[in-house]
Amino acid sequence: xxxxxxxxxxxxxxxxxxxxxxxxxxxxxxxxxxxxxxxxxxxxxxxxxxxxxxxxxxxxxxxxxxxxxxxxxxxxxxxxxxxxxxxxxxxxxxxxxxxxxxxxxxxxxxxxxxxxxxxxxxxxxxxxxxxxxxxxxxxxxxxxxxxxxxxxxxxxxxxxxxxxxxxxxxxxxxxxxxxxxxxxxxxxxxxxxxxxxxxxxxxxxxxxxxxxxxxxxxxxxxxxxxxxxxxxxxxxxxxxxxxxxxxxxxxxxxxxxxxxxxxxxxxxxxxxxxxxxxxxxxxxxxxxxxxxxxxxxxxxxxxxxxxxxxxxxxxxxxxxxxxxxxxxxxxxxxxxxxxxxxxxxxxxxxxxxxxxxxxxxxxxxxxxxxxxxxxxxxxxxxxxxxxxxxxx
Length: 392
Ligand SMILES: [Zn+2]
Ligand SMILES: [Zn+2]
Fold this sequence. Notes:
By secondary structure, the chain is mainly alpha-helical. It has 13 helices and five strands. The protein has helices at 2-25, 33-74, 79-99, 112-132, 143-149, 202-233, 236-243, 250-264, 266-294, 299-334, 338-353, 367-375, 382-391; strands at residues 137-138, 174-176, 181-183, 188-190, 195-197. Strand 2 and strand 3 (181-183) form a beta hairpin. It starts with a helix and ends with a helix. One zinc ion binds next to loops. The site of one zinc ion (ZN) has 5 residues, from loops. The chain crosses the membrane at residues 7-29, 83-102, 114-132, 204-228, 269-288. One of its GO terms (molecular function) is protein-cysteine S-palmitoyltransferase activity. This is S-acyltransferase.
C-alpha cells in the first residue's frame, strides 16, 4: 500500500510541476484562469512565504531567501535537471518493481525488459544532448556569420547592439539574462535543461519532447498488454462466466473486469493514468512547438508578433477614428444633408476598420525549408563559414 501512496504523491508533484511550467510557456493561457493559477503557484504563494520568512526571521532571513531566489531563478542551476532525473528514474523504478515480474507474459515478450531500459536511456541521452549542447551562442567570432544568415525584417528585429555583450545583435537572437549571453534564433531559456533553446539545439529539444511522449505511450501499451496477459493467464473471463455464471457479454463483464484490475493491479493502473496525463501534456506541448517550427517562428518571436499585432490593431483603430472624425467635420463644412453624410461616414469608417493586420514573417520560407532549417541549422552548414570569409 505504501508503494501506491508514494506513486500518488510522485504523480501529483510531477503533474503540478509540469502543468505550472507548461502553462507559463503557452501564450494561449495568458490572462486566463489557468494563467492565474500558474501565477499563484509560482509567484503568489511564494510572495506569502517571503512575507512569512520576513515576519519570523527578520531581515537576515529575508536576505538569505533572496540569495536562494537569485541562485534558483536568476542564475543557471541544475535543480530542475535533478527533478527531471528523479521523475524519470522514479517512474521507471515503480514500473520495474511492480510489473517486470510479469514479463515475459501472454501478450508481451521478454525483450521489453531491455527495450524499456533502452527507451529510457535514449530519453536521458536526448536530455543530456539538449542540456549540454551549444544553443548557438553569438560571440565576436561568429557574429558576422549570424548577421548574414538572418536579415533584419525591420518589424520585430531591427539593427542594434547588445548592451551587455557589446556586439551587434543578429536578427532573431536574444540576450538570455539568466545565462548572460546572446543566443542565435533564440526560442526560450529552458529551466529543465538549464540551457537556452536556440538555433543549434531546437532539434534536440523537439526530439526530447517527442521521444518522451512516445515513451509514455509505450509504457501505457506495455502495461495494458501485461494486464491483458494476467487476465488470460488467470482465466478471469472463464471464471466469471463459467464459475459465477455471468453472461458472456462485454456490458456485463467489463465492470467486473475493471473492478478486478483495480483491486489486484492498482499500482499498474495508477502508473497508466499518470503516463496518460503526462503524454497528453507532452503531445500538446509538442504540437505547439511543431506549429512554431513549421512556420519558422520561435517562442520569443511569437510573443513579439503578439505585441506587434495588438499594437498595429490599436494604431489602425486610432487611424480609423481620426479619419471618421475628419470626414464628419469635412461634411459639416460642406453643409450636405445630414442623412447622406451619416451613411458616408459609416461606410468610410467600416472600410478602414476592415484593414487586416497581417503577420509578414520574412523567415517563413515554406514547410520543407523550415523543417530543414531546424534539423540542419544554418550554422552547421558549409555556406555559413563561406559567409564569414565573404564578410571579412
Ligand atoms: Zn548579449
Ligand atoms: Zn539561457
